[in-house]
Amino acid sequence: MLSRRILIVSTLAALVMLINPLTAMAEQVLKQGTFTGKSGHKTSGSVSVVKTATGVEVRLGGTFKLDGAPGPYLGFGKSGKYDKKSEFSKLNANTGAQVYKLPGKFDASKHNEIYVWCRPFSVPLGVAKLN
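and the corresponding structure tokens:
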């Protein structure tokens, strides 16, 4: 059910961009990367940090996939170290396209990795190096 809602929201967002090309033109991809699994987990798919007219978003691509784990959260890190203070959302679904708004004052330029983090066990489930 949640995956269906995410698909509907993603489709509506794509339609808005087709209807209003100025909105799409205002977007700028700041960083992007591809997930690799960690701690024995399989995590894959693309991720982008995008500046929009209304703020900064983290977008997981349609091929995003996590094999499952308790308490997965999203956050940033730098050079192999997870920054717990950068956690911005619980992962909404283990597969598919997803969009997350970052807090207004968060500066994504200070980080070069994004993590899928298992909060209960304090281990990375997946990491994407951002370029």
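(Above: one complete record from the training split.) Confidence is low (pLDDT under 50) at residues 6-12.
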